[in-house]
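Structure (tokenized):
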């Protein structure tokens, strides 16, 4: 079903983004840089509107049903807790279009969470960037050092992998059943590192040291590299996780 439709697509997709938090606009910018067309983005708060305008100038801010109607690829960059309700709610009003790609960025879910949309004919993709986002253009460059967890039905895994590569990152296949463990690993690394570095910065500030972040940055980087068993001249071969 999906293979023929995907094969008939042009290389340039019309992409709609639901969610203008720190992740959605950055992925949109990266895909726009790869030659795709961003047809619309949803944004509600003043902060998200400003972010959308800064990262994707000229891209219209649209209502969610309009984004879905106009898009060949829909990116759901919403908080993980909101994802199931959003997908099911849109399915209840028959908003999804058969043959369109729907990609979510939540760490803890695979493609099962997209089941209501899949039942209406969409092609489900789960793609999580293993990176802490700032929501600025700096993130677009950081993508080139990042890995994305990819979960998708086997026939369409290459589509998700190709999108990741177009954004400048490296795809790593994670099985549907392994997504919760993957999410736990990501959350542990993120929360632990943020808490420890924050505590260390506070201690240095109490000592009267200016710009403690600059003082700690080389130490933290070298400590993390040593913990990962990686020297400055080496890279991590996460492809081993696929075997």
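Design, position by position:
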């Amino acid at each position: 079903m999906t293979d023929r439709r995907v094969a008939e697509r042009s290389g340039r997709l019309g992409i709609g983004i639901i969610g203008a938090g720190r992740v959605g606009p950055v992925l949109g910018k990266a895909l726009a840089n790869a030659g795709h067309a961003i047809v619309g983005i949803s944004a509600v708060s003043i902060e998200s509107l400003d972010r959308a305008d800064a990262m994707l100038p000229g891209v219209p801010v649209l209502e969610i049903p309009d984004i879905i109607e106009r898009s060949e690829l829909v990116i759901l960059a919403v908080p993980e807790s909101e994802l199931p309700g959003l997908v099911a709610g849109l399915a209840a009003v028959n908003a999804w279009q058969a043959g369109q790609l729907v990609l979510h960025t939540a760490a803890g879910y695979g493609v099962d969470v997209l089941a209501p949309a899949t039942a209406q004919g969409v092609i489900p993709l789960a793609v999580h960037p293993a990176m802490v986002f700032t929501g600025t253009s700096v993130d677009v460059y950081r993508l080139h050092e990042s890995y994305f967890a990819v979960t998708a039905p086997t026939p369409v895994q290459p589509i998700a992998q190709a999108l990741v590569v177009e954004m400048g990152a490296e795809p790593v296949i994670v099985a549907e059943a392994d997504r919760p463990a993957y999410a736990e690993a990501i959350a542990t690394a993120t929360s632990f590192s943020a808490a420890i570095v924050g505590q260390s910065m506070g201690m240095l500030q109490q000592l009267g040291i200016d710009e403690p972040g600059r003082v700690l940055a080389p130490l933290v980087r070298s400590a993390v590299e040593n913990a990962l068993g990686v020297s400055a001249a080496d890279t991590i071969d996460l492809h081993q996780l696929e075997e």
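Reviewer-requested clarification: Confidence is low (pLDDT under 50) at residues 1-10, 235-243. The beta strands are 14-18, 37-42, 73-76, 101-104, 123-129, 147-151, 170-173.
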